[in-house]
Design brief:
Elements: H1 2-26, E1 42-49, H2 53-66, E2 70-77, H3 79-88, E3 92-97, H4 103-112, E4 118-132, E5 139-140, H5 142-149, E6 158-161, H6 168-177, E7 188-190, H7 194-203, E8 207-212, H8 222-227, E9 231-233, E10 235-237, E11 246-247, H9 251-255, E12 262-269, H10 276-285, H11 287-295, E13 299-300
Parallel strand pairs: 1-2, 1-3, 5-10, 6-7, 6-8
Antiparallel strand pairs: 3-12, 4-8, 4-9, 4-12, 4-13, 10-11
Length: about 325
């Protein structure tokens, strides 16, 4: 009888142990909650070419006002530093610069991330030539700028950049004005920002500055209007124009490409979910964001623009 009870007790213990182990095996581990931002909520870090600070400040201001649960932390840097951020910094998912990705950069992302970030042109910018308000020499051509940057016109007039390397304006001068040649460092001076370029030109009658148009081309911006008392926007020759051969970098000159010193404004978005980066990009791409670019007197890349010849017949009213 004792043996039978012991066997029964052992069997009961084994059954109980199996039930306990089975129950533990069925328990699902608690999943950690990953809080992802959404197109209209959360925080994101972005890096932006310093040339576009005035207009991107406005884009961020209006976006955050429309979506109060969002925070966009903007770092304004030279273009090359922005591209380093998108390549190497996992916290930076969006940059705004003057070019898209190269084929090598696309391959790098495909190999390391398994996908290629989105990029596209969202606006058209102009590089403005600015001179001191007391300077009467306000007519330039691309050829003259080439010779000026190459040091062929002497060293009396210095060309002021927002940095000697790594900035989009310097790259534009080398690629689009000098056509790949190097400039004469004896006639080029570097300062730290677009604002400092304008300040330098305002203080030196012989200085010539190159800046993005959003820094100086908005006639509705009080600060820019005050600055236009100290500097002037120069005309640049349009070689393909039959009339008005010298053009200022106004909106019509940008959109019709009559003004020769234009460049694109691009976003590069490293985001593989529908997050805040995509929300801000869509805001800039569609009507409200495009109207902000228009208000800043840049050219829109997403809203259609056309020129038509019309004839208006007016009747005299007696």
């Amino acid at each position: 009888m004792t043996v039978t009870i012991s066997k029964l007790a052992a069997i009961a213990w084994c059954v109980l142990l199996c039930i306990i182990l089975s129950a533990q095996g069925c328990r699902q581990p608690k999943k950690s909650k990953v809080l992802l931002d959404t197109p209209i909520s959360g925080k994101i870090n972005i890096s932006v070419d310093e040339s576009f600070k005035p207009v991107i400040d406005e884009e961020v201001k209006v976006f955050e006002s429309a979506y109060p649960n969002t925070t966009i932390n903007v770092q304004y840097k030279p273009e090359a530093e922005c591209l380093k951020d998108i390549l190497n910094d996992s916290a930076t998912r969006l940059v705004i610069v003057t070019r898209g990705l190269s084929s090598k950069e696309e391959q790098y992302f495909a190999d390391t991330l398994g996908y290629v970030p989105q990029y596209d042109r969202i606006a058209t910018d102009a590089v403005a030539v600015v001179v001191n308000a007391n300077n009467t020499d306000t007519f330039f051509s691309v050829k003259r700028l080439q010779e000026q940057l190459a040091g062929k016109l002497g060293k009396r007039q210095q060309v002021i950049f927002d940095g000697l390397s790594a900035t989009s304006t310097v790259r534009f001068a080398i690629d689009s004005i000098l056509k790949g040649k190097v400039f004469d460092t004896g006639v080029v001076k570097a300062v730290r920002s677009s604002q400092e370029v304008l300040n330098y030109v305002a203080s030196d009658v012989n200085a010539i500055g190159l800046v993005g148009i959003s820094w100086i081309g908005n006639p509705e911006d009080t600060a820019q209007l005050n600055l236009l008392k100290k500097v002037k926007i120069a005309y640049v020759r349009c070689d393909q124009c039959e009339d008005s051969p010298y053009v200022k970098p106004n909106q019509m000159g940008i959109l019709t490409k009559r003004y020769p010193l234009i460049r694109g404004l691009y976003y590069v978005l490293k985001e593989n979910h529908n997050g805040l980066g995509m929300g801000f990009v869509n805001f800039m791409r569609f009507e409200r964001g495009q109207l902000i670019f228009k208000r800043a007197y840049l050219g829109s890349s997403k809203i259609g623009f056309g020129i038509r010849s019309v004839k208006i017949n007016e009747k005299l009213v007696k």
